[in-house]
Amino acid sequence: MVRLPDVTRVRIDEIRERILTHRMDLPEWEIKTSRHIGFDQYEPLDDWHPVKVGEVWGVPGVTVTFRKQITVPQEWAGERVALRMETGGEGLLSLDGAPYHGVDDNRTYILLHLKAKGGETHELLIEMKTGGYHEWHDETKENTPRPYLFRGASLLAVNRAVEEAYLDFQFARDTALAVHDPLLRDSILTALHQALLTVDFRDTSTDAWVAELTKARGRLKTALADLNFGDHPAKVFFTGHSHIDVAWLWPLRETARKTGRTFSTMTALLDEFPDFYFNCSQAPLFLYAKKYYPAVYEKIVKYVKAGRFEPVGGTWVEHDTNLISGESLVRQCLYGKRFFQKEFGLDVKVGWLPDVFGYTWIMPQIYKKAGIDYFMTSKISWNDTNKFPFSTFWWEGSDGTRLFTHFINGTYNADVTPRETLELWEAYPSKMDNPEFIASYGYGDGGGGPTREMIERVERMKAMPGLPNASSGRVHDFFERIEKESRDLPVWNGEFYFELHRGTYTSQARNKRGNRKCELLYRDAEFLSVVAMGEGRAYPQDALVDGWETILLNQFHDVIPGSSVTAVYEDSDRHYADIAARATTERDAALQTITASVNTQGEGTPMVVFNTLSWERSGWVSLEVPGAEAGCIVLDADGDAV
Predict the structure, then answer these.
(1) Residues 601, 554: Cα–Cα separation, whole Å
(2) Residue 293: CB partners within 8 Å, gap ≥ 6?
(3) I need a labelling partner for 198 at 20 to 30 A (CA). Which of 25, 95, 179, 555 fits?
(4) What is the DSSP string of 400-456?
């Protein structure tokens, strides 16, 4: 066993220690605490007061805003300048009054200047959210609130040449330790070792050392390119993504803030990395950004036009498929595709439901007829008993319609490491049918998206022997390409049954009942409003569309199945009550218009009975007749008394 890994590790650690050329600690800040009670509403709990590094700044359930003015030292002119914040929690940094970048444990390094002039002054305002909607407790211990400790803050000057060298050498070493072929492993380590031997590490503080390091990067690149091991048989397509649950362990008002944090970070990274692509589904996330973070949304629109911030999904939200009606499935597609068409002029054709708890057999028919030609999920690969046999295949619906389908096998929040990428390839079951697979990378569930370290690794994977041939770009282009290149794909005829999250279809029954009652009520309101149009009543389109959008929103795959926290269902109860009242008003107004047009002249008390179903029916009709004894009249299908 060679000892080269230990030698290279020591040298790589030395390089890492030289990435920073200057550091200025920022130990003192001001903070104030509030409680987030609405989308853009806060209840103040105190006023500005000082806090220092090493002190506790918050407990679960509050929002704490950090404030500080900083000045880049004049002697840092020409340097790459970044902010480091170590606080815990989730936050949004506003730079000079504008939302700029997310701050959390995965994003402690925030680039401020690619090349500072020196002397720049900035106002930093960081809105930090703590937990509180859902806390895990150890029942064997006292349930005391978790404290949030201010661990550190500093302004950094970064030597980009040293940083790039460190990333190159570290990624090569990680690859060597991940590949299975011992000859390839030792060849990569040897190339790495020989490149580092050309660098004099006795004095790492000089410009000459940095120049030697840069030359060593070139030597490593050449040596790796000369390794004669042939191309890896696989292709991996990386797409940046952040799976933001519209509601789950937090309510909708927190989702709006998660959107601001995530999208500000993604647009900042799109500015920094010209080969970075990001995709996002779900219309409400775009609407939250547009309403509450307009400056960020302007950048989103710019990058959507450039093809680098890519809308996917084509539905209003990443919806459940088994609990909602067929009409709702159609509406998910109609409202989603219409939003992206009107907002961006795009026809979204890739269905994107990575986290839904099973998929109904009628989806291929509905998706294809709606103009969604491709479908991606990951969840079925999590089955705990029956492993799904394919990853690239045709999904055939109950009517015979076929939908081109590609599964991510494993995580949809990939970290872009060599070991993980090889594991994704090994788990990919359709190697013979289509050797290219998609890897969705970036922090999700609570949002955040890719980090700059992940993006850097994607670029280095494109030229690394022993790993799948990596590329990135638009998801639509990926699906169009593999559909053309795949031949004789297998066909799956049936539903996708998910075997892990059991019990969700029987929990939160009141929420499920609210969905179904509103689905039926809005159908009646629409049907009767169309009839009333013939009698001169204006069609209440805005009211009905708003109500449907709320129905579709609450069909998100963590809301309607019952897998969210209590605050989510408190919101949905209010939503259903509100939209049911509006639909009832519109329905009754339409009924009055229609009734007024019916000729009721003649003897007796007139009575008009409506049947909004599409077939004849019989049943009980109950009414109050002035002066009559209590009772009821039963009519048969012909309207005759029984």
Answers:
(1) 46
(2) 99, 259, 260, 263, 264
(3) 179
(4) S-EEEEEE--S-SSB---HHHHHHHHHH-TTTTT--EEEEEESB-BB--B--HHHHH
Sort strands 80-86 and 109-113 into parallel, antiparallel or unpaired.
antiparallel
How many CA within 13 A on the CB side of residue 222? 8
The DSSP string of 533-596 is: HTTTPPP-HHHHHHHHHHHHHTTBTTTTTS-S-HHHHHHHHHHHHHHHHHHHHHHHHHHHHHHH
- Residue among 500, 42, 554 at smallest CA distance from 248: 554
| CA dist., res. 577 & res. 581, Å (int) | 6
Alpha-carbon span 198 to 216, nearest angstrom: 7
Place of tokens 């402690």: 108
Q: Is residue 134 within 8 Å of residue 565, measured between CB atoms?
A: yes
- d(CA 109, CA 154) in angstroms, rounded, equals 10
Distance of CA 418 to the CA centre of its chain: 23
Residue with tokens 């401020």: 112
pLDDT at 147: 86
User: Parallel, antiparallel, or unpaired for β 309-311 and 278-280?
Assistant: parallel
The tokens for 632 are 């009821």
The pair phi, psi for residue 37, each rounded to 5°, is -115, -10
Q: What are phi and psi of 500, to 5 degrees?
A: -115, -55
The residue behind tokens 């709702």 is 328
> In whole angstroms, what is the distance from residue 338 CA to residue 255 CA?
23
Please tell me the predicted confidence (pLDDT) of residue 607.
85
The per-residue pLDDT for 635 is 53
pLDDT at 545: 98
Helix (H, G, I), strand (E, B) or coil at 136: coil
Task: Give the C-alpha distances (Å, rounded to integers) separating 159 from 21, 23, 153, 203, 258.
Answer: 6, 12, 19, 16, 32
In the 8-state DSSP scheme, what is residue 604?
S
Q: Which of 355, 373, 558, 571 is catalytic?
A: 355
Q: Is 203 a catalytic residue?
A: no
Question: For 101, phi and psi rounded to 5 degrees?
Answer: -165, 145
Q: What is d(CA 212, CA 11) in angstroms, rounded to the nearest whole number?
A: 14
| Backbone φ, ψ for residue 158 (5° rounding) | -115, 130
Pairing of strands 28-38, 49-52: antiparallel
CA angle, 377 then 383 then 385, to 5°: 155
Token couple for 108: 């402690």
Closest CA to 381 of 408, 415, 342, 341: 408
Among the listed residues 100, 90, 115, the one whose alpha carbon sits nearest the alpha carbon of residue 447: 90
Which pLDDT score is estimated for 131? Answer: 80
Give me the half-sphere count of Cα atoms (radius 13 Å) on the Cβ side of residue 295. 12
277 membership: H or E segment, kind and range? none
In order of 162, 167, 234, 269, 525, the CA distances from 428 in angstroms are 36, 28, 10, 30, 48
Complete DSSP assignment for 374-401: EEEE-GGGG-SSS----SEEEEE-TTS-
Across the chain, which has 642 residues, the per-10-residue mean pLDDT values are 69 96 98 96 97 95 97 97 95 98 95 97 97 58 73 97 98 97 96 96 94 97 91 95 96 97 98 98 98 98 98 98 97 98 98 96 98 97 92 97 96 96 95 94 93 97 95 98 94 95 89 98 96 96 98 98 95 98 97 94 86 88 68 54 52
Q: Say if CB 467 and CB 520 are below 8 A apart.
A: no
- What is the reported pTM? 0.93
